[in-house]
Amino acid sequence: MVLQLVVFDLDGTLVTAEIDFHAMRQAIRDLLISNGFPLEVLPMNSTQDLLRSAFAYAQSQGNSPVEISELRDKVYAVAVEIEWEGAKKAQLVLGARETLQELRNRGVNVAVLTNDNREVADFLLAKFEMDALVDLLVSRDEAPHMKPSTEGLELILKHFGVTSSQTIFIGDSTIDIMTAKKLRIPCIARLSKVRTEKELHEEGAIEVFPTLEPVIQYLDEQGWLPLPTENTKTKG
C-alpha cells in the first residue's frame, strides 16, 4: 500500500483536547429537559449517543423536519459555546505541524475530520498555522451525522477520489477507530487523556503514540509513504 490520503481527527490529535464534554452533555441535557424531553431518553455516556437518542425521540413524537432542525440549531448553539472555551485553551500536539508538512512534501493528501463546529475548527487550524497544510476540512457543518457515522469520512474519500486501501486515519478516541474500521481503514491512535493505550489497542488501533512525532518514521518503516521528492505541495 502506498498512501494517497491521511485523515486526522482534530481535538486530542492535532491539538490537545480541552473541551469539557461532561459539561457539554449536561448543558445539552438541561436544554432538552426544559423542552419536554424525558430524562430516560437522554444518555450521558457520550455526546454522540445523547444527540442520536434525542433526535430519534423527537422524530418518534411526530416532530416535523423543520422542528427537528430548529432543535438541532439550539443544541449546537450550546455545544459551540463550550467548544470555543476549549479551543482557546488548546495547545499544539508535538509533531503535528511537522507531520502535516512532511506528508505534503511526499505528495500525500491531508484531511481533517472533526465533530467540531466549522468556525471552531477553522480557528484551531489557523491558531497553530496548520490551515495551509490541510487540503480539506470536514466538520459537523458539512457532515451532520458525526463520527462514528462514516458520512464525513466517505465525503473525504469521494473528494480525493481515493479508496480505503490508500488511506490511513489518525485519531485519539475509540470513536475515531470505530469510524475508520467501518470503512476498513487502518487507524493510528494518538494517546491523549480520552482513552488508555489498552482501550485504543483493544478497539483496533494498529499503533499508539503519545505524540505525532513518530508517525512519519512509522509509516516509512511500513513502506506506506511515497519517497521524498524535490517537489512540495503548496496552497494556491
N-to-C SSE string, H for helix and E for strand: EHHHHEHEHEHEHEH
| Biggest sheet character | 6 strands, parallel
Our estimate of the beta-strand percent is 5-15%
Count of individual helical segments: 9
Number of strands: 6
Helix content: 40-55%
Trace the largest sheet across and list its strands.
3-2-1-4-5-6
| Low-confidence sequence ranges | 231-236
Oligomer: single chain
- Shape, per Cα inertia axes: elongated
| Secondary-structure-derived class | alpha/beta
Radius of gyration: 18 Å
* Overall pLDDT metric: 94
Kindly report how far apart the N and C termini lie. Answer: 29 Å
Structural write-up:
The structure is a single chain. With 236 residues, this protein is α/β, with parallel strands linked by helices. It has helices at 21-34, 47-60, 65-89, 96-105, 118-127, 151-160, 174-182, 197-203, 215-221; strands spanning 5-8, 109-113, 136-138, 167-171, 187-190, 207-209. A six-stranded parallel β-sheet has the order 3-2-1-4-5-6, with helices on both faces. Helix 7 links the parallel strand 4 (167-171) and strand 5. Helix 1 packs antiparallel against helix 3 (65-89) and helix 3 (65-89) runs parallel beside helix 5 (118-127). The chain is elongated and about 60 Å long. The two termini are 29 Å apart.
